[in-house]
């Protein structure tokens, strides 16, 4: 769902063992909420080696904030599909994608 007033909300489904992400943004801020399954969110400030990790699951609903300038990924650690709600402070613009690939963890 995309709106100029409220940014962008996505629903992402990840299969068992799949890693999604491994990119960072200059201006986009994202928030992840896993509502089904279990996973691991990893992020790292660009230019730094320290990896920050958060285990996430439907059993403990919490929003993980991914700030700008941090490469990030999410890994499905469970045996079932993982469903993640992702909010971004700005809509995706294919003419200015603000997405730079770099391993997060």
Automatic annotation (TrEMBL):
Gene3D superfamilies: Jelly Rolls (2.60.120.10)
Pfam families attached to this UniProt entry: Polysacc_synt_C (PF14667)
Residues of the Capsular polysaccharide assembling protein CapF C-terminal domain: 1-100
Signal peptide interval: none
Name of this protein: Capsular polysaccharide assembling protein CapF C-terminal domain-containing protein
């Amino acid at each position: 769902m995309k709106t100029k007033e409220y940014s962008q909300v996505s629903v992402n489904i990840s299969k068992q063992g799949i890693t999604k992400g491994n990119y960072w943004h200059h201006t986009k801020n994202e928030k992840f909420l896993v509502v089904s399954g279990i996973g691991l969110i990893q992020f790292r400030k660009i230019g730094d080696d320290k990896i920050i990790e958060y285990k996430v699951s439907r059993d403990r609903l919490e929003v993980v904030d991914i700030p700008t300038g941090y490469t990030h990924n999410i890994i499905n650690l469970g045996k079932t599909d993982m469903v993640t709600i992702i909010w971004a402070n700005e809509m995706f613009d294919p003419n200015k994608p603000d997405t730079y690939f770099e391993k997060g963890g």
